[in-house]
Design brief:
7-stranded mixed beta sheet, single chain
Length: 202
């Protein structure tokens, strides 16, 4: 079994924000594969089914972003899984808007949801799919930018990257992390604002 964890915040006011990219990616996967978030457990909304002959559990932790690890810790204990069985999808300020990048492991890079994951799993060794949202070009604080409304152009670019991130998760489950890295890490999407020059360094 693989567990795909989309990081985000519960509640309608957050649904379309930059910070809820992870929720939207697992929602897209559920739609593609006829899965429904009809179950609640592990402090999460859950959908279970099969993706590329792999049993997959999709998770939307309802703990709020900074405590996402609490949900994952419970799932790992009950399902008796290793950290590598979790695929985590989240927004990344240090990737250009629209960029999708796959990593087999690594640091949290300042993302509090991933920090909570690392702490709860006791490991950095879990695959992740990072979806670029860029940084604000104005003096807007990062926390406001994460939750602020997007321009129509930004929203379209992010919608496209969410579809590609779902493609990346499917490839991880079907062909492995290395194949997904080869396919997606070389792709660039330069539309929108908020680009960061160091997106290839992490």
């Amino acid at each position: 079994m693989k567990v795909v964890v989309g990081l985000g915040n519960p509640g309608g006011s957050y649904a379309r924000s930059r910070h809820n990219v992870g929720f939207r990616v697992v929602g897209t996967l559920a739609q593609r594969h006829g899965m429904r978030f009809s179950r609640r457990d592990y402090k999460s909304q859950l959908a279970e089914g099969r993706i590329h002959d792999e049993t997959a559990l999709l998770m939307k932790p309802q703990t709020y972003m900074n405590l996402s690890g609490e949900a994952v810790q419970r799932a790992r204990r009950d399902l008796r899984l290793e950290p590598q069985s979790f695929v985590v999808v989240y927004d990344d300020l240090d990737l250009r808007l629209g960029r999708v990048r796959v990593r087999p492991d690594g640091s949290a890079g300042g993302h509090h949801g991933v920090e909570s994951m690392i702490e709860s799993l006791g490991s950095r060794s879990f695959p992740r799919v990072r979806v670029g949202i860029g940084r604000p070009t104005s003096q807007l604080a990062n926390v406001d930018y994460l939750l602020d409304a997007m321009t129509p152009e930004e929203a379209r670019t992010l919608d496209e990257s969410i579809e590609r991130a779902a493609d990346a998760v499917e490839m991880i489950l079907g062909n492995g992390v290395a194949a997904a890295m080869n396919r997606f890490n070389g792709q660039r999407k330069t539309g929108g604002e908020g680009q960061a020059p160091k997106d290839d360094r992490r």
